[in-house]
Design a protein that fits this description.
The protein has about 55 residues and is mostly loops.
């Protein structure tokens, strides 16, 4: 499913919630770090290295 099929916006992610996304889903995503640092920061796990140089 992509943005052409369904548009969904999440206003607030709660502590301990997990986001799983492909590189396509992550494009244009703004993650505000105001509250994140209070709960231990943002942890990112890459299971592959994309071919692009961005």
């Amino acid at each position: 499913m992509n943005n052409m099929n369904q548009e969904k916006h999440v206003e607030k992610i709660l502590p301990s919630e997990i986001i799983i996304a492909t590189n396509l889903a992550g494009r244009g995503t703004d993650i505000r770090t105001d509250d994140i640092e209070e709960f231990g920061g943002l942890h990112v796990v890459l299971t592959f290295m994309p071919n692009n140089q961005r």
